[in-house]
Amino acid sequence: MPDFAPLLAHRKATEATPIAALFAGDPSRFAEFSVQLDDMLLDYSKTAIDAEARSRLLALAEAAGVEARRDAMFAGEKINETEGRAVLHTALRNLSGAPVTVDGQDVMPQVLDTLARMESFATGVRDGSITAPSGKTFTDVVNIGIGGSDLGPVMATLALAPYHDGPEVHYVSNVDGAHIHDVLEPLDPATTLVIVASKTFTTIETMTNARTAQKWLADAGLDSGGHFAALSSATEKTADFGIDPSRVFGFEDWVGGRYSLWGPIGLPIMIAIGAENFRAFLDGAHAMDTHFREAPLIANMPVMLALVGVWHSNICGYDTRAVLPYDQRLLRLPAYLQQLDMESNGKRVALDGSALAANSGPIVWGEPGTNGQHAFYQLIHQGTRVVPCEFLVAAEGHESDLAHQHDLLVSNCFAQSEALMVGRPEADTPHRVFPGNRPSTTLIYRQLDPFTLGRIIALYEHRVFVEGVIWGINSFDQWGVELGKELATAMLPLVQGGDASAKDGSTAGLLTVLQGLRD
Ligand SMILES: O=P(O)(O)OC[C@H]1O[C@H](O)[C@H](O)[C@@H](O)[C@@H]1O
């Protein structure tokens, strides 16, 4: 952990100055405390960060070696030390094919070859040249996956709805039979393509749902082989499952699950929006990669977003951050970011295994505005806890005939950050007082198109990376998900009536009640 003491002292000394007052002393504050990248701007002027705080935050990034670590990541070094792996999701969007080496081997020919195979498959499914064995065109695609094999594709598919011109794409993730039941029920098995998305091809939820889908096809008298494709790095396991190798799209262990939507795991997105739009999505992410690699730290959007995060978490002591897209199609962005951020940076030990001396990743949550306004913004404005808010908004919607609604949407977004900062200190009753001085950032972009969505996701990926470097943790492993999985496997026979006496009192009690309710 870096030495936060100077920043904490600075915070103490300046805490009494409201954020709004920082503008009075500095007419160029907006320009100086924002970062622009083409038609996208990150405004962090509505935070308490002043010039001194910022230079101290930048010094933290420098002292942590953010730039060297970033370069090591892009160079294919094994920065995921606990798993002995490189971290190269960025190679998946390197469409120029410029060499990227892992263990002395250029990975780009393989990456581009897989992309070409995905494109030919997706295009075939879209134009009807790849059909079900009966010769019928696929009208629906069901992607079965969970975590990183679900959240990114779901989020991006929803985000890019105006670009959908392929078969309808559906997602099943939960092991709860209700999920697959409700998704499959309205579909015709004869015209449905099932994609099993699992990096490891061992995840119990996904394998269970895949077998249910296999049975659904078999019960309809169909040969499931012609209805299946797989996205996985475990090609032996996909073969064991009976999926034809020509329908398997593989990737390497240097693509982490939560960073995997840029490659084969993005196939359902590509089927929905087409290969060209998918390339624009990759290009957008690559544009953010280039910016992240080249821009000086102070003008570097992911770095500054990370430093705002460190400021709010470690210096101001705020435990959560709310992601509030004023963009209905980013409905699942908060859920996606929960995995990206909390699975990456929810760590309690440093790279060397020593316990952290300060907090690492915060709790991430959120909902689209304006819906959130009518739900939890009460707490954000008047609660006892301060929640730093991250607003996202497009200058233009896609519905030109509804531009007046978009104006209302943008007005609400800007009004919220204004209200949070300015507040209403005087009121006739204490209940109507808004204390104000509550921080927020705003990311504004021209329109939510594939290129911009790619930039937004890559922005958050690199933000998480920079924060992880500053905290000295490994952002690319996820050991914390293991124990629950192991215990769930051991729990199954007990749920099915086995002897629970060795369990703790509460678990044994629950198992007894379960059996009682089932009798
Ligand atoms: O793609 P899979 O191997 O099925 O993994 C799916 C997910 O499960 C795991 O529990 C991890 O926590 C996630 O990072 C991963 O994305």
TrEMBL record:
Catalytic activity from the UniProt record: alpha-D-glucose 6-phosphate = beta-D-fructose 6-phosphate
GO molecular function, one term: glucose-6-phosphate isomerase activity
Entry EC number(s): 5.3.1.9
Keyword list, A-Z: Cytoplasm, Gluconeogenesis, Glycolysis, Isomerase
Isomerase keyword on record: yes
Top EC class for this record: isomerase
Superkingdom classification of source: Bacteria
Entries under HAMAP family matching the protein: G6P_isomerase
Family statement drawn from the similarity comment of this UniProt entry: Belongs to the GPI family.
Listed name of the protein: Glucose-6-phosphate isomerase
Provenance organism: Algicella marina
Chain's gene name: pgi
